[in-house]
Design a protein that fits this description.
about 750 residues; alpha+beta; 9-stranded mixed sheet; binds adenosine-5'-diphosphate; binds magnesium ion
């Protein structure tokens, strides 16, 4: 039924099924055009659709405004008695902006965000209707949440989950809807989302880091965790996308031979941005800025059709919300431009995958903690302390840190083209490495001076420039880059909260432990500076295995890392085990971030999600093989066979044999590939059946990893070979060379 056509679109040829094109053309027409080009400057329309402090000042009574500032700036508890007044102010502002609906916006343990829209309208009791929005609707809702994953915490008959407003993330408007950022918890109080543990981790790191920062700067009242994410993504033409069922169903191509040209010329990175893509970027930036996301950087990435967007860093909780919002804006706006935005970590084999570097730092209410000012010895000791304790957190929980970024999709990226390896280590650069060595080896004479009248610490002051000049080792998953650490193993599709809640709580634990040891020494009469230095020196020795300044891609590093005792596991289901190790549970409980019950429940979800992803991939892959590839290949083989027969008809046997030599070879080759594909698709289906019967989610995920996933790769090899043999016109899927080059 499907005849093929060549369609000229945007000046280049796309081959796809006519029927499918029709679907796409209709989709283009339906796509909403909602990005009006503003007449104002970005600085003027920034935050236009956010109920930020400026709006609060305008729409709330003075005393309510003051209370809200206290909640946002100082973490004061939200006082329910002002809820109605806040809701009134928000409603007035929202209605002025054409809003008719509102929704609690939360981050369940699926990908993306969840929302259920309700109208403002209510009966007025006189036969008409009126817009209503009370405080209680703002503050709390009870979504029927039975179909969100809970890992068994909330059984379906006890379907209640609560979403509660998080006033530290401001409400905003999208289209006609007021979006209210909320946390999501079960009836019994367990977290069912990413936000609750994230907020607890941020609280823990604030407490722990403030206490340590006060050794150096007694005035410090608060420590803030900052996050600057860099979002990588691919764009593909929408008409090609819909002709690839694997992309539609799984977000990645499960088959496809390398394009003759991909990224080998290094001509895409920082190259000039294709015009169509630039139009897309402009639109997403306008929307983002209007929603208060401080977009700053846009550029081409390494792989063809790969791009990046980065805002200026923000407080971590807000930055996480903004990233979730940004990902949904990107997906929506892409369609308006006839693109699909791929956030999968590895949409294409053989070219770079996409990550989301998480630039992380701590700052106090009076200054920064990872900055090296090089003014006083005490400043330098503060710098060394926070660097070392961060590394201690990363070292002590390196397996867990990997678990926080591991997923069925990110597993394809780690260890592949230009992605960090699946081993967590830290690059410090020469200046900082030397500095730590210097501190460790400073002789005791020097230390004995400490605590006498003039505190003199033999640390060279560190010129900031030098630290900033760390040659950026791109192979390191956790690199120090001047005034922050850059966690590069985070996947492009991931919710940053997973990595950030882990990092912040692990650092909190390290700092709590640090303070306990320093205080113990001080109680024994040791001077503060000397006590700090002693503990820091102890920890510098301890963290050595995590520091690695060499090439993270090399095989020598893999061997060396194993020798150092770092977690080298690559199987995602086994990597998840790290969450349930005793030291992990202890850390989460000590910092009050998650309980054992929550951790166990979350792991059930992780294993189940992993299984489902591989299951879907395997199913669609099997379908593609048997319903798309094999029929086309068989048809092409028949053409060749027919040709051989015809040659026999018109030539004498010996000559015919000679003429048909290549075709005969091809016919055989095709048979071999076909046989392998058919046999192994069957084997894969069997492997799935066996795995599906396994009760335990963990064991099932392991079975999917060990017995189903490898077959996808093995079979793919043969499909990709066939792609190079079969008539291009007959090939049923758009090829890499078409998918990867937008003109
Ligand atoms: P690169 O691609 O070289 O790593 P980018 O300029 O693309 O760097 O992105 C750097 C990111 O790091 C931005 O989001 C920036 O705001 C963020 N950043 C800069 N300084 C800090 C800091 N002290 N803490 C957290 N993030 C930071
Ligand atoms: Mg970066």
């Amino acid at each position: 039924m499907l005849t093929f056509a060549v369609k000229k679109q945007y000046g280049y040829q796309i081959m796809a099924a006519r029927l499918r094109f029709k679907v796409v053309d209709d989709a283009f027409k339906r796509a909403p055009v909602y990005v009006e080009q503003p007449k104002e400057r970005p600085s003027e329309y920034f935050g236009k659709y956010v109920f930020n402090k400026q709006k609060m000042y305008k729409y709330l009574p003075a005393k309510v405004y003051k209370k809200m500032c206290d909640v946002i700036d100082n973490g004061a508890p939200f006082d329910r008695t002002i809820a109605d007044e806040v809701a009134q102010g928000i409603k007035t502002w929202a209605i002025e902006n054409g809003v008719t609906h509102y929704t609690h916006w939360f981050q369940p343990l699926t990908e993306g965000t969840a929302q259920k829209h309700d109208g403002f309208v209510e009966h007025d009791g006189k036969g008409g209707m009126v817009e209503e929005f009370e405080g209680k609707l703002l503050v709390q809702q009870e979504p029927d949440a039975s179909s969100f994953p809970s890992g068994g915490i909330r059984s379906t008959f006890e379907a209640r989950g609560y979403s509660a407003w998080d006033p530290t993330s401001p409400v905003f408007i999208i289209g006609d809807t007021l979006m209210i950022p909320t946390i999501f918890i079960s009836y019994t109080g367990e977290a069912l989302d990413y936000k609750v543990p994230l907020k607890k981790a941020l609280h823990a790191v604030d407490k722990a880091a403030t206490a340590v920062a006060q050794y150096f700067y007694p005035d410090v009242k608060k420590v803030i965790s900052n996050l600057g994410w860099e979002q990588e993504y691919f764009l593909v033409d929408e008409s090609l996308y819909v002709a690839r069922p694997d992309l539609v169903m799984t977000g990645r191509t499960l088959m496809g031979h390398d394009s003759a040209k991909n990224q080998q010329m290094d001509d895409h990175y920082f190259g000039s941005i294709p015009v169509r893509v630039e139009e897309f970027m402009k639109d997403i930036e306008i929307l983002a800025l209007q929603l208060g996301i401080p977009c700053k950087t846009r550029h081409n990435e390494v792989a063809p059709n790969q791009f990046e967007l980065a805002p200026i860093f923000e407080e971590t909780n807000l930055a996480v919300d903004h990233n979730m919002l940004m990902m949904s804006i990107m997906k929506n706006v892409a369609r308006k431009h006839g693109f699909r935005c791929l956030l999968h970590e590895k949409p294409f084999k053989g070219v770079n995958g996409s990550g989301k570097h998480n630039n992380w730092s701590l700052a106090t209410d009076t200054g920064k903690l990872l900055h090296a000012p090089g003014k006083t010895a005490m400043d330098n000791l503060r710098f060394v302390t926070f660097i070392v304790e961060t590394l201690k957190a990363v070292y002590d929980h390196n397996g867990l840190l990997k678990a926080s970024i591991m997923s069925a999709t990110n597993a394809h990226r780690l260890g592949a083209n230009e992605a960090p390896p699946a081993i967590i280590s830290s690059f410090l650069g020469k200046t900082v490495t030397d500095l730590l060595e210097h501190v460790e080896k400073a002789d005791d004479d020097n230390l004995s001076m400490v605590g006498k009248k003039a505190f003199k610490l033999d640390l060279p002051s560190i010129p900031e420039l030098l630290i900033d000049n760390t040659d950026r080792n791109r192979t390191s998953p956790f690199a120090f880059t001047g005034n922050r650490f850059e966690f590069r193993a985070v996947g492009s599709e991931a919710n940053c909260a997973s990595a950030m809640l882990l990092l912040n709580s692990a650092v909190a634990e390290a700092l709590i432990d640090f303070k306990t040891r320093v205080d113990a020494l001080m109680q024994k009469g040791e001077a503060k500076e000397s006590a700090i230095l002693k503990v820091v020196r102890e920890d510098i020795k301890h963290i050595k295995p995590i520091i690695f300044n060499g090439n993270g891609y090399s095989d020598e590093w893999k061997a060396e890392a194993a020798k150092r005792g770092l977690d080298c596991e690559t199987s995602a289901p086994l990597v998840f085990d790290n969450y349930l190790k005793e030291e992990s549970v202890r850390m989460f409980e000590k910092t009050h971030v998650m309980t054992r019950v929550e951790l166990e429940a979350r792991n059930e979800i992780k294993w189940e999600t992993y299984t489902k992803k591989i299951q879907i991939e395997s199913r669609i892959f099997g379908d593609l093989c048997l319903n798309h590839i094999i029929p086309v290949v068989t048809k092409y083989q028949s053409v060749l066979i027919e040709n051989v027969h015809k040659v026999q008809d018109i030539f004498p046997a010996e000559k015919a044999q000679k003429i048909s030599k290549e075709n005969l070879h091809l016919i055989e080759l095709i048979s071999d590939h076909e046989t392998f594909i058919i046999e192994n698709v069957e084997k894969m289906v069997e492997a799935r059946k066996v795995a599906n019967r396994i009760e335990s989610e963990r064991e099932k995920a392991i079975a999917y990893h060990d017995t189903v996933a490898p077959l996808l790769e093995e079979i793919r090899y043969h499909v990709d070979k066939l792609e190079t043999i079969v008539d291009d016109e007959a090939w049923p899927l758009p090829k890499y060379r078409e998918l990867l080059f937008i003109r």
